[in-house]
Amino acid sequence: MTVPNLITIIRIILTPVFIISLMGEQFLTALIIFVACGVSDGIDGMVARLFKQKSRLGTYLDPLADKILLVSSYVVLAVIHSLPSWLAVMVLARDFLILLGVLIISLNRVDLKVKPSIISKVNTCFQFITVLAVLSQPYFAFRPLFYDFLFYATGLLTIISGLHYIYLWLGFMGESPNGRRNNKAGVADQPREPGPKGE
Question: Domain spanning 3-175 has what CATH number?
Answer without folding.
Answer: 1.20.120.1760
